[in-house]
Amino acid sequence: MSAKTPLMINLNLPKWKAGSVLEIHTLLTNLCATPCTSQGAETRPASTAKRVQLQFERPFGSSASLSPNTSSHRKQNQSPGQPCWGSRQPAEASGNTQTTSGPSDTPHTPCVQMRDQALRYRSIHTRLMEMVLTLQQTVEDHIVRLTTRPQQRDLALEEQWHGQAIREQEALLGRLLFQIVSFLPAGAPGDQSVQPPCTSTDSRGDVGGGQPVQANRQTGQMFYEESDFENTVISYDLSNRGIDISALYHLSFRDYDTYQGNKYHKDKNTLGYINLGTSENKLCTDLLAERLSQSDMTYVDEDLLQYTDWRGQPFLRKEVARFLTFYCKTPKPLDPENVVILNGCSAVFSALAMVLCDPGEAFLVPTPSYGGFAFSTHLYAKVKLVPVHLESQVTEANGYPFQLTVDKLEHALLRAKIEGKKVRGLVLINPQNPLGDVYSQDSMMEYLEFAKKYNLHVIVDEMYMLSVFDEAITFHSVLSMKSLPDPNKTHVIWGASKDFCISGFRFGALYTHNREVASAMSCFGYLHSISGIAQYKLRQLLQDREWIDNIYLPSYHFRLQEAHRYVTRKLKASKVPFLNRGSGLYVWINLKQYLDPCTFEEELLLHRRFLDHKLILSPGKTFMCKEPGWFRLVFAARPHLLRNAMRRFQQVLVEQAQERTVKQLEDAMKEEVSTSQPEAPASPALRKS
Ligand SMILES: Cc1ncc(COP(=O)(O)O)c(C=O)c1O
């Protein structure tokens, strides 16, 4: 840092904000001025960040002493209202000679490749310090903004413009702070540690991205807690809950938003992002577009233009009941009165969390698991997820990688009870996302018996039931069971986003034997129903068994097999281990060999490197996976896209492997130098003794 002349500024600033900003500034200044050299020091910013969070709660102090050079660092010709990214590179400010980091170094924005090379060798601490310095610069700019009143007399317009500029800067500050909190290393000791949240990738949902974070972190817990988001974003306008939601959104959807703004297109944008992170089915969109354009789809009844039954149009509920009766092979026809339709399975899941749990209560969920659940349960219901951690290692207790057993369920339930959590249910995905496992009938029965024994609800998400492409595997719906251990507490979810490639339709259905639950769920149709026109088209689609069985499903399964074969061949060629399961739109791949050391921080860096190559994959942390190094790769894409994606994928692995080798060589050389050096002579004091 350059020399600082303390500068007294008598501020006449609105409300609490200036005080908070100044306090943050002082904190950041102290933080930047403190050298951190040891390993332990790497965790220091974690607690500081927590303190930074707390500063937001402090009331405003009307005058403050502001240390630095604030305005002198400001870029002279910077236009007002803009953060002065270019004015003083953070590294220059700290006297740090390393490559500087600007907005393009933020966790979700790809960096230029050369800078990335340098970045890879930096410690987490260095990177954090860069972020903190960038933040400090922004805070300084913000103080200047707050203390600069409009010069001209005019005026309302000028005032308005000034206010707007301040808001924009504050939004930026909030984002920067949040990025820093997001980036803090996992496992920092003590209560103040903050785990690095996962980047979102499975966009909407698998967005997962939003790797939940836990406030009072226990080993292996990685879920969002409300307190993680409190006060990390500054806002004039949002409530605390609004701030929480906004932070959750940014955490969960940042990669997805980046992707939406710059999508790959084979003619129009060949340099755009290819998204193999979101579990979205692009394999048969052509068939669906064609079918949905046929004349029987275009009918508009006047009734369809009116409000409807909030559980869903009776004609669609009837068709969904028929459809599930047929494809789930139920022993008796399902009852349309037990069907509730909302705009997507995420909405169904979120509504179920609302009606089955009180805030703070929890669901057990075997992990790795679809990351969108954490988002959906937190958003409205403030329901927690308790992970049942599965392991990749095959052992006596673990017959195959990531096997779910009743023992593990019981263990997790017991641990949750000891921690004072009230567990209300168990969430199962079958076929599983991201593993691709299909549960046998016997296993499923064991899980249901377990739930009954402990009086738990079971939500079975059968979202991928028609996406089993290995002919040797048979999927058994829970609805096909002749007798369910606890029918009143067994709830099944299915939607058309995955099996029919129409995630944009936003259609999700619940089937429950429990009328009380169905009735409570109906209320959500008031907020989350689908348009009558879309419901009509969905009915037409689901009732066309001839097309589904003879045209759609054979083509869909063939394309799934082809895409899976192509991707797994490439993985084998690159010697990347993966789970070879025959269902779902994705493969669960093991990139541990590319992480050195094998940590979640390195996983995040590798994820960023994929982003730098405009490729989105979902890192394992997004799925609450306990072991770093796993990624989910979605292969349900058309051949040209997949070919391009796999080219980018392989390029990243080659670079990553090269860097690893260089790093290992450097480490070996360093060790050699340190062991070959003669021991330093003992100090006189030591010699004497
Ligand atoms: C297991 C699972 N359930 C639910 C969803 C969300 O589905 P929808 O598009 O219907 O909200 C997803 C999306 O990835 C999923 O993988």
From TrEMBL:
Q: Which GO terms describe its biological process?
A: amino acid metabolic process
Q: Which InterPro entries match?
A: Aminotransferase_I/II_large, Ethylene_sulfur-biosynth, PyrdxlP-dep_Trfase, PyrdxlP-dep_Trfase_major, PyrdxlP-dep_Trfase_small
- Entry keyword set: Pyridoxal phosphate
- According to the UniProt entry, which residue ranges have a biased composition of type Polar residues? 62-81, 94-107, 192-202
Enumerate the spans annotated as Aminotransferase class I/classII large domain: 274-645
GO-annotated molecular function: pyridoxal phosphate binding; transaminase activity
Q: Which Pfam families match?
A: Aminotran_1_2
Where is the region Disordered?
A: 61-111, 190-212, 665-689
The name of this protein is Probable inactive 1-aminocyclopropane-1-carboxylate synthase-like protein 2
